[in-house]
Amino acid sequence: MPISEPTAAARVRRPIERIGATVLREFVQAIVSGEYAAGQILPTEAELTTEFGVSRTVIRETMKRLQEKGMITVAQGRGTHVQPITSWNVLDPLVLSTMIGNDRTLGVLDDLSVVRSALEAEMAGDVAGSVDEQARVLLRERIDDMAESVADSSVFREADVQFHLAVMDLSGNALAANIARALILHAVHSDRYLGLDPTHAFELTLAEHQAVVDAIDAGDQARAREAMREHILGSWQRRRLPTDRSSS
C-alpha cells in the first residue's frame, strides 16, 4: 500500500510542537532559576504571546503543562501564580533536569543522594532477604562488567548504573525502584553530579559494590542496607565539587 503524502495539518503540527516544547523549557527554566519567583503573578496571556512571539494556543498549552508539573496555579479572575518548590513534581524529567542544571550550590544533588541512599539501601536489604542463585549470578555479572571497565570512565559509569538498576529490579519494590531510577538516570547526565575523579575512585567504587554483593550473597539484610547506603553517600562525597551550600 503506497504511503500517502502528509496532510498540511500534519506538516504544520511538528514545528508547532517543537515551538511549544521550547517555550515550556524556557518557562520551567525561568521558574526554577527564580526569574519568576514563588507567589509571583505571571504576565497576561496576551503579554506572554507578544513576549514569546507565539500563538495563544501555544501559551495556553504551556500553562496547562506547567499546572500538571505543579509549578503554577491558574485562578479565574486572579491570574496565574507561580507555586513554591514544595508543590513541584520534582520527579518530572524536565523539572528534575532543570533543577540539577541550576544547582550551583549542589544542594539539590546533596538531597538527591540522601534520598537515593535511603531508597536503594532498603532495596538492597530486600534483595538480600530473598536472594536466589539467579540473582547472585546477575549481580556477579554486573560486578564483572565494572571490573573489566575500570580503565574506561564512560563504560565504567554505565556499568555502575546497570548494577544499581539490577538491584532495583531484583528488589521487587516497583514504587521505590521507579523513584530511584528517575533520580539516578537524570543525575548521571549532570557534570556536577559526575564531579571529580579522585585517585583510585573507580577501584574504591568497585570495592563498595563488591561489599553490597557480598552482603546480599550472604543473605545479610542489615549489612546489605548499610553497604549500599555507605557507597552512595561516600561516593558522592568523593566526587562532590568544592562549593558552599549556603551560598546564594
TrEMBL record:
Molecular function, one GO term: DNA binding
Name assigned to this protein: FadR family transcriptional regulator
InterPro entries: GntR_C, TF_FadR/GntR_C, Tscrpt_reg_HTH_GntR, WH-like_DNA-bd_sf, WH_DNA-bd_sf
Taxonomy, superkingdom: Bacteria
Keywords: DNA-binding, Transcription, Transcription regulation
Domain HTH gntR-type: 17-85
Keyword Transit peptide: no
Native organism: Ruania alkalisoli
